[in-house]
Structure formats: C-alpha cells, structure tokens
Amino acid sequence: MNRRTVLTLASAAAVGALAARADAQQPASPKSASPGAVPKPKQTTLGLYMTPREAAEAMAKDGARTLFVDVRTRAEMMFTGWAPLIDGNVPFVEVTEFWDWDDKENRYKLEPNATFSQDVGRLLAAKGLSKTDRVILMCRSGDRSARAADKLAEAGYTQVYSQYEGFEGDLSAAGHRDVNGWRNAGLPWSFKPDKAKFYLGIGG
User: Fold this and answer.
1) How far apart are CA 158 and CA 135, in angstroms?
2) Which residues contact 183 (CB under 8 A, 6 or more apart)?
3) Across-strand partners of 107?
4) Which listed site, 10, 13, 26, 66, has its alpha carbon 20 to 30 Å from 110?
5) Which run of H or of E encompasses 17?
6) Given a cut of 90, is residue 71 above it in pLDDT?
7) Taking a C-beta distance cutoff of 8 angstroms, is the pair 94, 27 a contact?
8) How confident is the model at residue 5 (pLDDT cuts 50, 70, 90)?
C-alpha cells in the first residue's frame, strides 16, 4: 500500500467519522465561538463563526443546505492545498494582472474581486439555495473571510459564517502556520486541483 493510498483512506475515514459525529449532534449553532475567542480583525457584522471542525461537521450533517466557499486566491488554492468539502472557490481579492509589488505591505499587490458577491450568488443558485441559507467562508487565517462575510451581509445574505481559523491557520512565534486551521485539524485536504471547484474567472 503506497503513501497516496494511505492518505486517501485516512481522508475517507476522517469524513466518515465527522458524518457519524454530526449525526449524533445538532447542527453547529450560530455564534458558536464566544466573542472573546475571535480576535477583533476576524470579527464580522453578523457575528457568526465556526471552527474548522464545526464547518466540516456542518457539511457532513447538512451539506445540501449549506454553501461552503474558499475565498483565497487561485495561487493559494493551487500551491498550499484546498479542502475537497468546499463547494467552490471565489477569491475575495486577487493579485494584480502583472503581479505588481506593494512596498508598504511588502508583498504582491492585491485588488478586490469586483464580482465577488455575484460569483458567490452563482454558486448559491447552482446549489438551489437562497441568501437566507447558511454560507460558510474560509480564507488563509480568518481575516479575509471576515471581510468577505461583511461584503455578503451588505448584499443581503443573512447566515454567513466565517471559519475563523482559516485553511492554513495563524502564525506561531516561529513564523509558521502550525497553530490551528483546517490543515492542522487533521481534516481532509489535497494538493490535486479540481477544475469543477477552482475559480476560472467571471462566471467560473
């Protein structure tokens, strides 16, 4: 049995365990995190949050009535991995067309995705859901998903949860993203892209 087979079996077992656990519990409740548990930059106007495990359990329990969106850039999805449990990727911001450098932030410049709300709306409609149904957003560490949640709230969405630890998690004192987050929670993730769930631009 090779390493890839072992990882695949482990991921399948993890999803099965989450489904079994979710069946024995009620769906994750609004404001499951206490206000003090969510740092201010990660707080949203709706005040709805989930941990990685709560998001996974919500999808296992009630995925047909929940939209799970990764709002990271396409490069992040490609090179740092992604969670197969998501319904799709809609970047909240993206690097500029020519990868311009931002001296103030000491990184490549990022620009807002002008069609973010509409793109999420297309995923919502494709799943047969409305703006009053539950939406879960995930970014790298929880800051961006909070801003994205506020953007959707402005557009009339009423149940937008921010997965406030993100996919990679927060930085440790050593500068590594190994404190929390989806990957560090032992939840299913992959490096292998899936065109059906990766963002292809407007309408994609």
Assistant:
1) 9
2) 81, 167, 168, 169, 189
3) 102
4) 66
5) helix 3-23
6) yes
7) no
8) very low
Between CA 69 and CA 88 the distance in angstroms is 5
- What CA–CA distances, in Å, run from 162 to 103, 139, 168? 29, 9, 14
Structure tokens at 139: 């970014």
Element (H, E) at 118: helix 116-126
**What's the chain's average pLDDT?**
88
pTM of the full predicted structure?
0.84
DSSP state of 156: T
Radius of gyration of the chain (CA): 16
Q: Which residue has the tokens 């970047």?
A: 91
Q: Domain spans of the chain?
A: 3-185
DSSP-derived secondary structure letter, 24: T
d(CA 119, CA 137): 13
Residue type, 143: D
Give me the pLDDT at residue 186, please. 96
Domain 3-185 class in CATH = alpha beta
The answer to whether residue 112 scores a pLDDT higher than 50 is yes
